[in-house]
Design goal:
Strand content: under 5%
Shape: globular
Number of strands: 0
Number of helices: 13
Largest sheet: none
Order of helices and strands: HHHHHHHHHHHHH
Radius of gyration: 20 Å
Length: 287
C-alpha cells in the first residue's frame, strides 16, 4: 500500500524545514490504515531528527546517581530549575551514602527552588537509602530493579536506562502524551498503554531518541496552550494543525529555547548542542 497523504490522496509533498505557509494541513482520515499510521509516525520522527539532530536529555548529570536524583526532582518543575539547583546538592552530597545520611532540613533548603521541597527531600533521601541498602550504593541498570526504588516509576526508569545505560526506552512525560495524542498515534490515555502503543510503531532501537525528539518538539514548538503551528516543520503530517497560531511570523514569536533564540535548559550541555548554536542556561541567581 502506498503512503497516503493525510487527506487520503497520493504521497504527501516534501516537508520543508522552514515555516509552512498559512495553507491548512490536510488531516489523516479516521480510517487511516495501520500501515499508513506507521509510515506517518516514522516520517514524523525522521523529520524531527533533522530539526533536532542534537536532542539530548535536558537534565545535567555526570553519572547514573545524579540522573536518577535529577529526574525525581524534575516532577512539577522545569529541567532548567533542577539544573540550577542540583550543583549545590551534588557538591554537598556527591554519593548515595552522603545523601542518605544528610540532615533533612539542610537538603530541604537546597531543594526549595524546585517546589514541593519537603516531599522531594523525603523522596531523594529515601531513594539514596534504598540504593545503599539494596544495591551497594550503585544505581541498578535493570527496569525491574529501578522501579522498586522510592519515587521511581517507569518514566524515570526509562530516562535513566536510556541516557545513563544506553538501553532503549520510551519516556512518556506530559509533552510526549500531548503530542502523540495530537498526532493520533494512539487514543490511549494511560502512560503505560501509551508507551506500549507508540513503542509498537517503531523499532526498539529508536525509542530513546524518539523520546528526545518528541519532548524537544513539545517544549519548543508544539506547546500545550499555544502551539506554534505556523512555525512547525511537520505541519503537513499533523492532524491537529490549526489548533495554534498558523501565521508564520506570529508563530515564530511563540518559539522557546534555542528555536526562539533563548538559552536552553542545561548549564552543561553536550558539545554537539553548543556546536549547533545552542546556548547554556544561566546558573541559579544569574541576571
Amino acid at each position: 500500500m502506498g503512503e497516503q497523504n493525510p487527506g487520503g490522496g497520493k504521497k504527501p509533498a516534501k516537508v520543508t524545514k522552514g515555516a509552512p505557509t498559512k495553507k491548512a494541513a490536510a488531516k489523516p482520515p479516521k480510517e487511516e490504515s495501520r500501515t499508513a499510521l506507521v509510515r506517518r509516525a516514522r516520517r514524523i520522527n525522521r523529520e524531527l531528527a533533522e530539526v533536532y539532530p542534537y536532542a539530548h536529555p535536558e537534565l545535567d548529570f555526570d553519572n547514573p546517581f545524579q540522573l536518577v536524583i535529577a529526574t525525581v526532582l524534575s516532577a512539577q518543575t522545569t529541567d532548567l530549575r533542577v539544573n540550577q539547583t542540583t550543583p549545590a546538592l551534588f557538591a554537598k552530597y556527591p554519593t548515595p551514602e552522603d545523601l542518605a545520611a544528610a540532615v533533612p532540613e539542610e537538603v530541604e533548603e537546597i531543594l526549595r527552588p524546585t517546589g514541593f521541597f519537603r516531599a522531594k527531600t523525603k523522596s531523594v533521601m529515601g531513594l539514596s537509602k534504598a540504593l545503599v541498602e539494596q544495591f551497594g550504593g550503585e544505581v541498578p541498570g535493570r527496569l525491574e530493579d529501578l522501579v522498586k526504588l522510592p519515587g521511581v516509576g517507569r518514566k524515570t526508569a526509562f530516562v535513566v536506562l536510556g541516557n545513563a545505560f544506553g538501553r532503549p526506552g520510551i519516556t512518556v512525560d506530559t509533552h510526549f502524551q500531548r503530542l502523540v495524542k495530537r498526532w493520533r498515534w494512539t487514543d490511549q490515555t494511560d502512560p503505560d498503554k501509551i508507551e506500549a502503543a507508540v513503542g509498537a510503531l517503531f523499532p526498539k532501537s529508536d525509542w530513546t531518541d524518539l523520546s528526545h525528539h518528541v519532548i524537544w518538539h513539545g517544549r519548543r514548538i508544539c506547546h500545550a496552550r499555544k502551539p506554534a503551528c505556523g512555525a512547525c516543520p511537520i505541519a503537513p503530517l499533523c492532524p491537529a494543525y490549526g489548533e495554534g497560531e498558523t501565521d508564520p511570523e506570529k508563530a515564530k514569536k511563540l518559539l522557546k529555547y534555542e528555536k526562539g533564540g533563548f538559552p536552553g535548559q542545561r548549564l552543561k550541555p553536550p558539545q554537539s548542542y553548543l556546536d549547533a548554536g545552542g546556548r547554556p542556561a544561566p546558573p541559579l541567581g544569574a541576571g
